[in-house]
Every structure is written in C-alpha cells, then in structure tokens.
Amino acid sequence: MTPNGISRTIGRYRRVARDPLLLFVSMLTLASLILFVVYPIASVVLQSLKPGDSYSFAAYAETLKSAYLRTAFYNSLMMSALTALVGTLLGFLFAFAVVRAKVPLGKFFNGIAIIPIVSPPFIGALAIIMLFGNNGLITWNLLKIQNFPIYGFNGLFLAQVVTFFPVAYMTLKGVLESMNPVLEDAALNLGGSRTKVFLKVTLPLALPGIASSILLLFVETLADFGNPLILAGSKFPILSVQAYLQIVGMYDLPKGAAISVFLLAPSLIAFFLQRRIVGRKKYTTVTGKPQTSTGKIVSPGARTFLFIACLFISALVALIYFSILLGALAKVWGYDHSLTLEHFKFVFGVGFKAVRDTLMIAGIATPIAGVFGMVIAFLVVRTRVPGKKLIGAMSILSFAVPGTVIGIGYILAFNHKPLALTGTLAILLLNFVFRYVPVGIESGTAILQQIDPSIEEAAVDLGADARRTFSKITLPMIVPAFFSGLVFAFVRAMTAVSAAIFLVSSRWNLMTVHIMSQVESGNLGAAAAYSVILVVIVALAIGLIRLLLKARYGRFGGAMLHF
Amino acid sequence: MSVRLVDVRKEFPDPEKAGGIMVAVKDMNLEIREGEFITLLGPSGCGKTTTLRMIAGFEIPTTGQIWINDEMVNDQPPNKRDTTMVFQSYAIFPHMSVEQNVGFGLELKGRPKGEISAEVAKVMEIMGITELGKRRPDQLSGGQQQRVALARAIVNKPRVLLFDEPLSNLDAKLRETMRVEIRRIQQSFGITSVYVTHDQDEAMTVSDRIVVMEKGLVMQVGSPFEIYSRPSCKFVADFIGKVNLFPVKTLSLGEDARVRDRRGIEVPVGSADPALKEGDDALLMVRPESLSLSKAGAVDKESSVEWGSGRVIKSVYLGSVIEYELDAGYDKPLMAISHDPVNGEFFKDGDEVSFSFSRRAAHILPLR
Questions:
Q1: Sequence-distant (≥ 6) Cβ neighbours of residue A350 within 8 angstroms
Q2: CATH of the domain at B321
C-alpha cells in the first residue's frame, strides 16, 4: 500500500470511529452473519470431509460410488434445467400477454400468477396427487385408471412448472414493463414486420431478463424440497430429499453433508451467474411522459392465441386450488366426496398448536429480518464502514444456499455447547431471521438506490449524525418498501419447509411440516385443510398490511406494495 | 469566517484500472476571506465539486489540511462542521413539508419550537416563499425548490455556505433571476460562501473572486474582471468567453509594454502577465468585442492600434450584436463582435475589412 493509500485507509477508519454507533452496528452485523450464515454452511462442508475421526473424501467417494445417488444428482439437474426452461417460457408467454399484448382479463391473469407465489410451494404436489394419484379425482374417479404413474418425473415436472412459472412471470413482467414500447413502435415505423420486430427488438432487449429468470428458476427448483418429497417417489431420486433421508432416516451425517455439497455447488454457480446478469442491468429512471404500449406489436391472431394459452394455464392453477379446497371439505378423498368440516375440526383441535407456533415464529422472525435487512442495506449502500462488501456478500449467501443445506448446517452447528440450540424456539427463529434477511436487503437496496444520496448528505450537512439521519430521513422514505419486503418475508416464512423440517421438534412445530407428514401418512384431507388455512392466513396478512399502508401513505401506499 | 486550504490533495481509486489512482485535486492552496463569495469554476472533472465536498466534510483530503477559522477540520465529520450546502438536486426531504425542511437544521440543534418557527418564518419571508410553508416538496416548481434549499441552508447561519451547481437544473430565465437573488442573500447575511459552477456567466455575476480550475489544478484566482480581461494562461482565456490569440515576442514590459508579432509589426499592449519576462515568446489576447472592424484602410489611428485586415467569412446576426468570423491568415478565424448593429456598420460575407483594438484591450500571457 502506498503512503497515501495508508493515510486514506486510516482516514476512513478514523471517520467511522467518530460514529461509534455505526461501527458497533456494522461489527455486530458482521459477527452475526458469520455465526448464523457462514458457520452453518462451513459446518456442512467440514462434516462432509470428516466421516470418521480424520479428514478424508470418503463420504464423497461413497456418494459417487452409489449409482442411486448419481442418478439423484442427474435427476436434480435435469429436473431443474427443464423446469427453468419451460417455466420461463410459460412465464414469458404470460408476461408478454399481460404487458404487451394487453389481452382481456389481464388483471385476472396477474392474480392467478400471484397465487402460487404466496402459497406453500408443495401445494402443487398435493393437488396433483389429489387429481392424478392412486385415488385421483381425474385418474381414478373420472378415467377409472388405477395406479396411474404420477410419482416420478411426470408428476414432479408438472408440479415444479406450476409452482415456479409465476416467479418467471414476475421477473419478466418487470423486464417488459421497463422496456420502452416506443422502441417497438419505432421499429414498426421503420418498416419491420411484427415477427421481425419481436425477434430483433423485443426479444434481444428481454434476453438478459430471460437468462436471469432461467437461472433463478434453476436455483429454486434445485433447492425445492416439498414437491420432490411428495412426488418424486423412490424410483426418481432427487438430491434434496436424499440428503434429508440420509440424515433423518439413516443418521449418516457425513454422507448427508456430502450430498448437500453436491446440491450446493450447482446452486451457487447458477446463483452468482444470475447475479452477474442482473448486476449488469442499468437502472434508469423514467422521466418525462409516461409511455404506454400501443400494443401494435401483436397481431390479432397472436393475441387470440396468447389469450387462450393464458386461459388454459389459469384453468390449471384454478383447478389445483379448487381441488385443495375440495379436498379439505371432502370426507375421504377419492371415495366419499360428501362435504364435511371434520378436517378443519382436526386442524383447529389437535393440530392447532402447529398453527399457533407457525404464526408466532413467522410473526417474530419477519419483523426482525425486515429491520435487520434495512440496516444492512443502509450500511452497504450508503456508508463507508469497513467490511461492508463482506456484509453484503454474506447476507446474500443465505439466499443462494438451498434450504436443505442450511437446515443440515444448523443442526450440525448448533447441537453442542456453547450454542446447543437444537429443539428450541431460538434455532427456528434464528434460521428464519437469517434466511429472510436478504428479502429486506433486496427491497431496501432497491429503494435506497432510487433515493438521491444528497438527500441524506443534506441531513448530515445540517448536523444530523448517522442515527438521526437513518431514523429521521432514510427510514421514513423506505418504510413502504420495508413493509413490502416484510410481507414477502412473512409469506416465505409461513410457507418454508426445506430448512425448517430439520429444526422442528415436538415442542416447536410448523404447519408446513405437519402438512408434509399428513401427506406421507395418506391423510390428504387434513393436509388440504392445513393448506387452506395457511393460504387464508397469508392472504389476510397481505391484505392487512396493504390496508395499513394505504391508510398511512394515501394513494402511494397501495402502489408501493408490489403484490 | 475564513476558510484555508493548505496543500490539499485528493485521490480516488481509479474505477477503470484496478489498483490505479485518480488525482482529483492536486496540492491546492487557497484562502477564502471572511464574508467573501468565491466561485470554483471549471469544466466537468476539474476537481471543483471534490474541493467543495472536502470543505463540507463529505470527502476527506488524502493529504493536506482544511482550516475553518483557526480550526483544522480534516477529522470533523460533516455534521459537526457548521457548513451548509445547497445541493445540485436540492435534496429537499420528500417526506417533510417546506417548513419542516427549512426548520430541520434548527430542530437537530435542539432549539425550542417557538424559536424555530420564528426563524423559519423570517427566512422564508426573505426568500419569498412564505405562502409555501405547508406544501409538500412534490408540489413545488424547480425555482421554488431552489428557494427552499437556500432557505434551509441559511436559516442555520452557518460559518460557511456551500453551493454545488445550484442553478443547473433551472431554465435560463430563472437562472438569471436566481443568481442575482443568491448574491443579494449572501450580501445581506454576509456569510462566507463557496460556489461551484461550470457556467462562466454565473461565476461572473455572483463572485467576489473566481478560482479557475482544470484537471485538479488551480489555474488562476482573481476578480471577475481579472479573470476575464487579464487571464494568466491560454486555458483561462479560452474557458472564459471567446478569445483571439496571436503569437508574439515580448519587447518591453511595464508602463510602455510592447510586443512584436510574426510579421514584424510592433504594438503597444495594455497589460502583461507577471510571469512574463522581456524577450519571452507570448500570446497577445484581444477579446472579440474589443476588436473593431471598419472598411479596409479606414481605421482611426489616433485611438486604436491597427492590427491587420481580412475577409469576412461568416456573420451571425443576434439582434443586439453581430458576430463575425474573419479570415486574416491565421490558423483559426478571428472573432469579432460588433455591438449596436442598428447604428453601426453591417459587413457581408466576403467583405474586406480592417480590424483594430485599443491598447487597453490588449493583454499578453505566457505561451502555456
């Protein structure tokens, strides 16, 4: 380091040291991220390298030797890649139809696409079993086919596409909306045919968004646990489920950890590729007149096709939720469809503790995650504290890592002193907080980047220190984004299963885990009833926060909550 | 309150080269007197905003010292410096009313509510924004936001008032009104002020002294008159307005300063840059408005130095003036501005003309 470089560094530290609160908060953040994000993941890697008393690659060798696990690795990658491609295709179709073609019922289609995002990720699997399974409404009741081969590739693929295409839709909707439609009009004006304009202007402009969506879906499908646990079956092994079975079924920690590492590697690669694509995107502020799409890019024929395709997909989604509702009310699914409230009585009676626990855990964890996320976003975007890049990278890590890996990491890291947390409420809370901090960071960062930094500088200039700048200037400006992030984190916390399934205990259990075990024991009615209640709670929470924001922030409030 | 910059240097990591360093301000020395209005003027990237931000405390000098009065403030964070800034984007807090914005600084100082509202009301009246008190920032026009930003700064009676290109987002008419306004406010409060702009007209209007900067270096410090009519180098001469420069040799300096041009013609000049010595090669500067044109051979030799003749190659009629370009055998066309076209003479493209200038309008400066 040059002498000037040294004095620069010293100057920076000296400046930060003058604001002790800032230094304290950043150090605390750094320490907690190391302890609750990095340490558990490192524990998984370490465990995988230490099958006995000494370090070796034996666990990996054993994993690779097993043809079954090799198949699982291949299956996971293939399933994720296919879901990513088909899901993105459907998402694009949907987004293009709603944003560009302006098909009728656009609002309705938008609503349909949001439902799977705000409901537990395994609802698709549950409904598919109810529709196409051994006692399926369609396969058995309608077509009289017994033992329809829904377990394995077919069923899982269908479930994954239905679960994840909305994520692609949301991503691509944003991309298409931010694309200036005047560009398309200009290309048409220059004499391009509609097909040409689509292929040469629209598609290339959307390409980074499409690539980003494909990678995002790949990561999410790879990490998914609920759908494969219900639908994969033994003939179509999937990595996340195998890791779980190794640990919970066979108590083979090193092997479970080794499988997790095989799951972790492709996830991280795809995740950071996706980050790079998104990072390259330039954020431009929209100025001047709002530019609305004239929709001339789409021919009447194409619009009709898009409309029918959207109707078809929406019908499928609607069918899934309808069957869940029906399942919750039917006496014995597949045999006796007379209506009953028995399953709900069960949930509100014997199973109500899980509802209460889930609400409490999500209710405590999300605000903490939200505030923590905002603080980190502020530190990373706005201050010059040392280690801020590390803070940003570490907090995003818990987003990139599959829940299964995190779950295993937590039981490995916190089952001994000084932090013997397994089986406690604390381990679930900590897991949820650190798992959903990135949601807060994402929304906080996005809004902070839109706020001119000189607004905060002005406050400092007028005599405010870091604490007062944050509480009087920054916080009020980011509150709407904060709540929007909060709702999203709450939804994720209510519907999470992959990491939590390792951490629940008889004392503290979750609705999602209960649903999984009801499905496993064949009690589809109870599972469906739980799911319905879960969806209702989430919908109520979203509606409540939306109302609060609207009351507090008037006409801006509703628009700021992006759901 | 005086501000002193001693050997102030600021380096940034080069964004284009890993490990590289970009020097934004190079060993700058400057003394700003109490109550003075000083402007940092220069093209974008010259280091003027960085200098301002160092005085405010948003950037820390890599080396060197910044003094406010008798206090070295390098280590003082911006919130402890008692300097207030008017930002280019105004930086009005969007979630507060105009009154709350203006009173924010006093509120932070913990002043009693009654005192705050009295002070705020007084300043808002001076700024002519009394009736805007309850408005939200998004209901204000650009000029109104500008006034709010200025009111918010001066209500604190800061030791130093800083302006970061405050008028660049306004339209031309409003810019002219506001710069007179800013000067008036500064004078009535007598606050030491540092103003950053790249607009030379703005700098001329508001400043007691102008600091012309380029590539992190101070090129010249002087009153608007000095900067414009006695530039110390080619960059300053070029940057402030239009200019004609002729290569000459210095024959004598002092009262009877004379130069000889390349054709061997000797001319008396009104002033010379102090850096010049007898016998130096130099540049003779004449501003376009000091170059008077007449029909070929009809120069009044009593009052002016006849310099040469040429042909009109371009004339632009602007109403109050006519701008001419002449081909007189130099590398670049000469520029001349003729005022009061109604009473004066018109020349057309292709006309042969003589040009002359008064001795006082001629200034010589070093080649570099």
A1: none
A2: 2.40.50.100
Q: A455 and chain B: CB distance < 8 Å anywhere?
A: yes
Q: For chain B, which ranges sit under pLDDT 50?
A: none
Q: Are residues B254 and B218 in the same domain?
A: no
Model confidence at A54, in pLDDT bands (50, 70, 90)? confident
Q: B219 and B258 share a domain?
A: no
Asked if A249 is an interface residue toward chain B (Cβ–Cβ < 8 A), one would say no
pLDDT band at A281 (very low <50, low <70, confident <90, very high): low
Structure tokens, A376? 């980190």
The CA distance from A495 to A511, in Å, is: 8
Q: Are residues B195 and B274 in the same domain?
A: no
Domain with B28 in it: what CATH number? 3.40.50.300
Is B186 part of any domain? yes
Select the more confidently predicted residue: A234 or A29: A29
Q: Give the domain ranges of chain A.
A: 75-280+299-337
Q: pLDDT tens-digit profile of B63-106?
A: 999 999 889 999 888 888 888 899 888 888 888 889 999 999 89
Task: Tell the CATH superfamily of the A75-280+299-337 domain.
Answer: MetI-like (1.10.3720.10)
Residue A116 predicted with pLDDT over 70 = yes
In this complex, the residue of A4, A461, A477 whose CB is nearest that of residue B11 is: A4
Q: Would the CB atoms of B60 and A460 count as touching at under 8 Å? A: no
Q: Which helix (H) or strand (E) holds B85?
A: strand B83-86
B201: Cβ contacts below 8 Å, ≥ 6 apart? none
pLDDT at residue A13 tops 60 = no
Claim to verify: residue B214 and residue B272 sit in the same structural domain: no
B259 shares a domain with B116? no
Among A8, A12, A18, beta carbon nearest to B77: A18
Provide the b/e sequence for B208-219 (b: ≥16 CB within 10 Å): bbbbbbbebbbb
Mutate one of B59, B63, B95, B145 to test the A interface: name it (highest A CB count within 10 A): B95
Instruction: Please identify, among B208, B229, B250, the residue that sits at the C-terminal boundary of a domain.
Output: B229
> Is residue B236, in this structure, part of any structural domain at all?
no
What is the β-pairing status of strands A419-420 and A415-416? antiparallel
CB-based contact, A18 to chain B, within 8 Å? yes
* Inter-chain Cβ pairs, chain A and chain B, closer than 8 A: 78
Predicted confidence (pLDDT) at residue A291 exceeds the cutoff of 60: no
Read off the tokens for A76. 């996971």
Residues of B with CB under 8 A from a CB of A: 11, 21, 56, 58, 60, 62-63, 75, 77-80, 82-85, 87-89, 91-95, 104-105, 108-109, 152, 156
The CA distance from A464 to A473, in Å, is 10
Number of domains in chain B: 2
A465 touches B: beta carbon within 8 Å: yes
The candidate with the shortest Cα–Cα distance to A105, out of A115, A94, A116, is A94
Co-location of B265 and B334 in the same domain: yes
| Domain stop point among B195, B229, B263 | B229
Query: What pLDDT sits at residue A283?
Result: 42
- What residues of B are in contact with residue A2 (Cβ under 8 Å)? 21
**Cβ-contact A258, A59 below 8 angstroms:** yes
Does A284 contact B at CB distance below 8 Å? no
**Average pLDDT of A274-303?**
61
Distant-in-sequence contacts of A5-9, Cβ < 8 A, 24+ apart: A7/B62, A7/B63, A8/B11, A8/B60, A8/B62
Q: Does A300 touch chain B (CB under 8 A)?
A: no
Both B74 and B143 in a single domain?
yes
| pLDDT tens, residue by residue, A530-550 | 899 998 888 888 888 878 777
Q: Which domain holds residue B259?
A: 242-366
Of A15, A19, A461, the CB nearest to B84: A461
Six token digits for residue A72: 């699982």
Contacts of A476 in chain B (CB under 8 A): 95
